Amino acid sequence: MLKIEDLHVEVEGKEVLHGVSLHIREGETHVLMGPNGSGKTTLLRTIMGFSGYKVTKGKIIFKGRDVTNIPLHERARYGMGIMFQRPPTISGLKLGKLLYATSGSTNENIDKYAAQMKMSGFLQRDVNAGFSGGEIKRSEVLQLMIQQPDFVMLDEPESGVDLENISLIGHSIARLVEKDRHIINRHKSGLVITHTGYILDYIEADAGHMLCDGEIKCHGNPREILKVIQEKGYQECIRCQKI
């Protein structure tokens, strides 16, 4: 699904990622952890193709295509989707209009998914305008449900969300990355940034990675990595990797 090979990325002239390599197979969901400022969000935004993230070395291969220099909208067309940690407010654009334009779905489908995410009353409101933290996250998940990407990236989906919303969001994210039972051999994949690990209660994570100072320092079982981080901090992961 995704191969990142020796990726070096600059932001405003400063190198933030230093030789990141990551392989995610079809049907796998990987979890990315790391301290603030380690480059996690930079990695996701670079994979998605946002401007301001300059790849100086390395490649991003998505479903067999080299997309390193392909614009964001083409990557979305190929099947990439992203959930932001702090998405922008878009004044003048109604959520329902955005959903329809993104997918070309019928209003019936949009209404069905909006009801599932408890967002029916938000379709005629400007995107994220006056939304609470939980409402913003539900809106982001709703957009991905409509888009139905083959590969979904989630930047701290549980951040700023109460327990009631995390259950709804967690179960919905699990459906986003599960195998599509109606299409033979079609598996969806994901890459999830988490600090708290709450999302691991809802998704089946196949692998975990710890990113620090722009480099992936270790790979392994995501729950084991998270346990070490919670008990001993990120430095213990780095020390262990060096032994």
From TrEMBL:
GO terms for molecular function: ATP binding; ATP hydrolysis activity. Residues 2-238 form the ABC transporter domain. InterPro entries: AAA+_ATPase (IPR003593), ABC_transporter-like_ATP-bd (IPR003439), FeS-cluster_ATPase_SufC (IPR010230), P-loop_NTPase (IPR027417). Pfam families: ABC_tran. Keywords: ATP-binding, Nucleotide-binding. Transmembrane segments: none annotated. This is ABC transporter ATP-binding protein.
